[in-house]
Amino acid sequence: MFRNPKQPAENKPRPFSNHGNQAYGDRAQVYEEIVKQIDLMLRARYSLLYVVTAEEEPIEEVLSLVASVGQAKRRVFYWDIVRGWSDNGADKGSIMGALTRVGTPARRSPLEANANPGDRSVDPLDDHQNAISNIYVLRDLHPILKNPATPANMPTIRELKNLARQLKRDRNMLVLTSHALHIPNELAEEITVLDFPLPDEKEISYQIRQKIAPDKLKIEGLAWEQLVKACQGLSRTRIERVLAKAIAAKQQVDDTDIENVLDEKKQAIRQTGILEFYKTSESLKSVGGLENLKQWVRIRKDAFTEEAKRYGIPTPKGVLLVGIQGTGKSLSAKTIAHEWRLPLLRLDTGRLFGGIVGESESRVRQMIQLSEAVAPCVLWIDEIDKAFGNVSSGMDGDSGTSRRVFGSLITWMQEKTSPVFIVATANNVEILPAELLRKGRFDEIFFLNLPTKAERQEIFRVHLQKFRPTRVRDFDMELLARQTRNFSGAEIEQVIIDAIHYAFGHGLSGQRRDFTTTDITYSIKETVPLAAIARDQIEALKWWAAEAGARTASNDVELTEELRQFSRKRGIDNIDNLDNLDDLDNLGDSGRPDREDGSNN
Fold this sequence. Notes:
With 601 residues, the protein is of the alpha/beta class. It has helices at 26-30, 32-43, 56-67, 95-102, 110-113, 142-146, 154-170, 201-211, 221-231, 236-250, 257-272, 291-299, 306-311, 329-339, 359-374, 384-388, 401-415, 434-437, 453-467, 477-483, 489-505, 517-525, 535-548, 557-569, and strands at residues 48-52, 76-80, 84-85, 135-139, 173-178, 191-195, 217-218, 253-254, 275-278, 318-322, 344-348, 377-382, 420-426, 444-447, 551-552.
């Protein structure tokens, strides 16, 4: 606990309280868990701790709290290359000097060392061996640790190894703080890494109430909860900044500031260069077809609520959407977030990989931390096959970086307890590692095939409703659907856009005519669908879906029968939802059922 000065010192841990530390007040409760964690490490004689954080002030406040827990005497000393040691300014510009002094035995008697502990002229390190569990904090050593083999940096690495043994023996701890994580192989067994988390709801609530005077805080109830939720994923510095902006603008914080907080969050996420924050407006009505997928999404709409948690529903993990380009995978990711009323983060997997050794792994950690801070949310991993398609073959050609990044990602996917729902999309699923596809990574794998005739009619209706909401009935949906066999949803949208341009371009200024079914059919004839040149890829995806037991996203009885027939041939019986199917008497020569218009697709 936070020790009462009147109580005798004890080495055993005690419950946390605020006795003797009234100045910290609720702050001690806000940081209680991480203070306990570091205190336990200190008592267990962890000698080197690497704290990853872009904010120095909060972690240093935590370390001050740690210094007041449990033991009879702890002190915290800070060093940086510009100002040297915080108490006396020694060792400015000298990392080796700072490390040497950390390991220097006491040069004064215990009586002298303890004579005037409040005297700032006292050398903070002279009482090194007389104190119990001192904490020494060195800021921003990452440039040294990133290049350990450089002759100028080798003595620093060696001295850190020396100190690891000595500090453990003396029950002291050296804490390295930096925004970037770089651990040389020489120190891998000595250093413990701690990611300092972004503020949670409890800390955000405390921070807002601490920074804003009660008479300036004009928000309560549901709006208050929304404000706190909007702040999740922001650093303490950014939260303070957006609140200060509100006070400067209108002398108060109210529900109108929720949108300002979301704008700040978008900017913060954008600056990471890894994630993008999407505001979604696409509902399930924006999706033509894909009825099985939409039904699956509707059933889980309230799975992230407190009621679902009390009911005992496991938190949904994620879904993998597989199909050729243009079949609605990206649109589905957006509609899931909108339907569930959750924020959507898009991960560009290409941005995970940096040119500097260790940078990619650091970016994965940053992505995970940010996603969990924003949770509950939807994390959209677009085209995951492009990033990790060659991991299993060993042909990544990047000295194992892809394998390490992939390993970190799938481990998190398997073990995460935070409500981050992953929507991963893939075009070429055959090259994905088997580890990604096994049970436990995703709740379900859906195969998005080219739309059926009925689905094409619905897709035309959705897009025409968007472009000409008052004229939807003027178009011949039956004809258009019949003429766009093997077209994807994206290609159907494009032929409508082309028809609009065609009608507009062939009219005279001031006498523009509106586009018609005829214009669309003309655009259809001018378009070569991807399926015409990617037939083998589509067929391969179907066979993979059958073998992997993927569900069809569409309510496509013909495709379901096709996959079931293939499964029977291969001795596989894992195609679900096959009750009440028609007889298989109409199989074509290839062993697959005939598609619409009597031809095999």
